[in-house]
Input
Amino acid sequence: MIYWFWLSTFLVVYVYLLYPLIIWAIARVQSTKNTQSSEDNDQPLPTITVVVPAYNEEAVIAAKLENCLSLDYPMDLLDIVVVSDSSTDRTDAIVATTQSEVPGRILLHRMSNRGGKTAGINSVMQTVESDITVFTDTNVMLDSDSLKHIAFALAEPSVGGVAGQLTYTNPDASETAQSGGLYWRYEEFIKHNEGLCGSIMGADGSIFAIRSNLFRQLPNHVMDDFCTSMGVLLQGYMFAFDARIKAYEKSAEKSTEEFKRKIRIANRSFNSYRALPLVGNLSLFDTWKFISHKWLRWVSFAFLLGALFSNVMISLNDASMFYHFVLLCQICAYALALAKHAMPSLKLPLLSAWYYFVMANAANAVGIFQSLAGKKTTTWAPPSSSR
Output
């Protein structure tokens, strides 16, 4: 049991602390600088299609379209397509109104049956003829020069895709939003350093782009952003990270919404791992990054449970005071998380961040067990507090 305790503890520390530090150190020593592609070239700008998946987004779709229309990119090289997943609110009507105001600038691709985000993207990509496709969520606003930075990044022949920098705009709106923002800054730190020494391990749907000819049709139950971006790597291209491509989003402010969202993401992500043959088909370096950043992160709840269970068994066998003390610390830590869940107004230093960490791992466990049980989540509902 002592072996299992230290192995579980090491894996938790490795996933959340050592790997980020190691990839940071490697990035300092060996940087390919692929995120800083030169903008001094005479190549003509490529054609771009901006794909915006939407389901019942009447609260934000008008602002999203206004943002897309304001992007600094030649009008004759840009298409904007809203993929409505059989929306039942005013989303389609708002798109139609904007279409009439700016004829020829916006297309509506409505799905006749609700099949989810991946199904919608599979459908619309059969019609895309542009050089580059940009994927961006409905509640995400882009800097005006984002498309130009995307075009310059993909001018590098070895780069098949690029992701941008997402910033949450409401970090102080609630403790959930604050903890979510802290986690996201941590995640962006890892992506930035992965990008400095090669490819990132999966893009986020808020903002990323690929060469359109690299898109491959996907099973409807997988994560479109993760599988599309990792599919670029499987075809022999790099997937870069460029912090100059800036996006802004309002994060979920309610812990119940965030918990449901993370369960859905965990289910679709684990289904993605099962559907996409990554290990053995990536380079050795990218395989290490994928296992460290993605695979071990998703199953880290098992390491946390392993450390707790083995600690209990060790302590029951009259172990040294060290193991009794560590067990007491673990029990108190999880008790505080439960207390925070029962009493959201409870405030202690770092408690919100710890509660978010426990909540996220619990959601991962639920989503993965759903995946193993055969559940395939395809549809989504936007969190109201993030709109």
In short: The two ends are 48 Å apart (CA to CA). The mean pLDDT is 91. The longest strand covers residues 238-249. The first helix runs from residue 2 to 29.
